[in-house]
Amino acid sequence: MKTLALALTLALSPALSMAADLELGLTIKNHQFVPAELKVPAGKKIKLVVNNLDGTPEEFESHQLNREKVIAGNAKSSIYVGPLSPGKYAFWGEFNMSTARGVLVAE
Amino acid sequence: MIGPAIIVFRETLEAALLIGIIAAATRGLSGRNLWLAVGVGAGLAGSLVVAGLTEAIAELAEGTGQELFNAAILGVAVLMLGWHNIWMATHGREMAAEARSMGQAVKSGQRQMSALAILIALAVLREGSETALFLYGLSAGTGSGRVSLLSGGLLGLVAGAGCGWALYAGLARIPLRQFFTLTSGLILFLAAGMAGQMARFLIQGDVIRPLASPLWDSSFLLPMDSVLGNLLHLLAGYEARPSGMQVLFYGLTFLVILLGMRWSRPPIPQAI
């Protein structure tokens, strides 16, 4: 059984994930992202910790980052992104699209 | 009013298209409407529960509970769709050919319908819980009044359901001979697309690696926010910037279900 588990882990290890390289904070307040522009290093895996200070839920969404996540009101949640190639990656809050807009700049 | 209408429309559309395809693919199975209703009802009830538990679910597994939850739902949905297609490959031909084989198919048909009811419940649950959260957020905020919010949501719901109905009605007009091939094809793409989405959630939750990310970028050709891009995303899992792992999940699911359908198909009687 142990050998089987070990063999399975070894076989899967190229597919399984490694920890993020760095952690960054993003805040939602009054249906806006703070900061609206977030600089990140290119080629690194980032753990984005989104802290929603509003009492209402928000959905973090980005086609360019290929991410989508609901964040409950007054709650924190993490989203893993990258490694990214240099460039600009727009994201927005699906539930408040007119105000909640931001961009991730990888360089 | 337009804001809520659009969001509710988009959330409804995803579930409505799935229900439209399933309803079309199961026409002729006894008790179908009842099972569909049970699926939608259970999904709506469940979505309210899930919406209420959003925070608790999100906090599981170090803040990635939502990803694991979504991936699990999609995984079950892929299994059900795959099973349906393989089952249809075995029984669909008989059902289409002669009414008398219907009697034999009824028993396994019931099992089949109960599985599809679960599938529909899961789809409604996923989209419904997001809609409930969104509407709650709007009503709790200042801005638009309750009446305009409600009428907007209702408008979106009706429009989304209308699209599902139109797809169903369109499919139902197709002659039986091509019908099973077409619905099986639609479901095959739907299941592969869901497997791709499942991979995306597992990557977002940091369970598996993205491999190449993105593997390609076709957003200049067909952006995700275009109508066609959106529709292809809903129906066939189109992604403008997919990761290698998503494409792998997509391709493997597609292949496995296709092979399952081939192998379980009864041999065609040879003409002498």
List the helices and strands and how they pair.
The complex is a heterodimer of chains A (107) and B (272).
Chain A: H1 2-12, E1 22-29, E2 32-34, E3 37-40, E4 46-52, E5 58-62, E6 67-71, E7 75-81, E8 87-93, E9 101-106
Parallel strand pairs in A: 1-4, 3-9
Antiparallel strand pairs in A: 1-2, 4-7, 5-6, 5-8, 8-9
Chain B: H1 2-25, H2 32-52, H3 54-63, H4 65-97, H5 100-140, H6 146-172, H7 176-204, H8 227-236, H9 244-264
Description:
- The complex is a heterodimer of chains A (107) and B (272).
- With 107 residues, chain A is mainly beta.
- Chain A has one helix at 2-12; strands at residues 22-29, 32-34, 37-40, 46-52, 58-62, 67-71, 75-81, 87-93, 101-106.
- Chain A has a single domain, classed as Cupredoxins -  blue copper proteins (Immunoglobulin-like, Sandwich).
- A 5-stranded mixed β-sheet of chain A has the order 3-9-8-5-6, with no helix packed on it. A 4-stranded mixed β-sheet of chain A has the order 2-1-4-7, with no helix packed on it.
- Chain A is globular, with a radius of gyration of 16 Å.
- By secondary structure, chain B is mostly helical.
- Chain B has one domain (2-264).
- Chain B is built from 9 helices and no strands.
- At the A-B interface, strand 6 and strand 7 of A face helix 3, helix 5 and helix 7 of B.
CA-based gyration radius of chain B:
20 Å
> What's the overall average pLDDT of chain B, rounded?
85
* Tally of strands of chain B: 0
What sort of overall outline of chain B do the alpha carbons produce when their principal axes are compared? globular
Regions with little confidence, pLDDT below 50 for 5+ residues of chain B: none
Please give the largest β-sheet of chain B: none
**Main sheet strand line-up of chain A:** 3-9-8-5-6
Q: From the 3D structure, determine the CATH topology of chain A.
A: Immunoglobulin-like
CATH architecture of chain A, please?
A: Sandwich
The CATH class name of chain A reads Mainly Beta
Oligomer: heterodimer
Supply the number of structural domains of chain B.
1
How many helices of chain B? 9
What sort of overall outline of chain A do the alpha carbons produce when their principal axes are compared? Answer: globular
Please indicate the percent range of residues of chain B in DSSP E strands (runs of 2 or more). under 5%
Cα distance spanning the termini of chain A: 46 Å
Average pLDDT of chain A works out at 86
